[in-house]
Amino acid sequence: MILSLLGLMVSSSKAQNMEPIKLANPSFEDLQRHSQPPRGWYDCGKPGETPPDVQPGWFEVTKTANDGFSYLGMVTRDNETWEGVGQRLARPLEPGMCYQFRLYMTYSDKYFSLSRTTMKDEYFIRPVKLRIWGGNGNCDKRELLAESALISNNSWKEFQFHFKPKREYKFILLEAFYKTPTLFPYNGNMLLDNASAIVPTGKCDEWIEEIMEDEPEVIASNDNVNVKPKPIPKPTKPKPQPKPDEPDEPEDYIVVAPPPPPLPKPSEEKIMEDLDINKVKEGQKLRIENLNFDADTFNIKSEMHPVLNEIYDFLVSNNRVVVEIGGHTNGLPPHAYCNTLSDRRAKAVTDYLIGKGVKKERITHKGYGKTQPVATNNTKAGRRQNQRVEIKILSLGG
Predict the structure, then answer these.
(1) Model confidence over 277-296: pLDDT tens digits?
(2) Rounded to whole angstroms, how far apart are CA atoms 40 and 87?
(3) Is the pLDDT confidence value at 88 over 90?
(4) With contact defined as beta carbons under 8 Å apart, do 158 and 93 qualify?
(5) Which pTM does this prediction carry?
(6) Domains observed in the chain
(7) Can you spell out the DSSP letters for 63-77?
(8) Please, which pLDDT band fits residue 116 given cuts at 50, 70 and 90?
């Protein structure tokens, strides 16, 4: 009876050890913000430097998330510092056990920040790699478990890792790092999203077969698994064409799709009917309709162009009018966050109009944060009214 019970306990323990180790917040979901890691993750960068960012919406990073609404942005710097995040695992990694881990990564062709050596704003756009560490304390780098190739793909791509820890580790750390061997530090970035659980795979000999069926260029391991390239398929002979006097077989018929219906003509109806030189007066504020920013972002989307082009046409037709673009938020976030976000949204609109040809001296911008609500912040509808962008007529030039 005792032996049976012990056997059952051992069997149960082995089954538990083969269960996936789930990460906290594997998709890095949080309020988009700079210099603060997403919930569930600790900052593991160098003391005195800013932590990683929850993107998009900051430093001109605009890429859409692979999963959910946000993702992690990390950089390397030209002063030999780099960013990383870590967390305590739900169950330790076991020595000698083989694990598989996947996540999606890309890089941003824009990541505007301050160079630590020149003290000037620069684009952090050189490709970097991901390094995965195991340790026994927060941000402890005891063993390098795996690292990726340089992340130079400009769209989301799944990266796969296999590793076999030499010791037990209760913590994991993900960090951005330079191209190696490193000749000099540089400003680069990487974006991470949609991480998997860490899955025990049993026999490590099965890795090679699985790697061959996947994407070998992104596999990395501290065991230096040799990966052979996929075999190149043999070219197939072209199918012989039927003679002109022979009817085609049914499977070779070409079905011609009917032509698509004509596109509807654009509507001539104005979006902002009150934006009329005969209706406006100095000091008047008009809400810019159909200007719906994604949550916590300030990116101009294509569906915003019609109303912005309408404002541009108004300013071009009335070339003595001077306006202010004002940004406003709802009342939930802190003041500092609201002030920054509202200012960036107002500036994005201003930059769009100036980019189309409006003279700089005829248009200014200002972020009012949450200081000028037009409705209650206690309801969703009220908050939606408060998070707005307005055009204010400063002068009619008369």
Answers:
(1) 999 999 999 999 999 887 77
(2) 7
(3) yes
(4) no
(5) 0.52
(6) 17-218 (2.60.120.260), 285-395 (3.30.1330.60)
(7) PPPSSSS-EEEEEE-
(8) confident
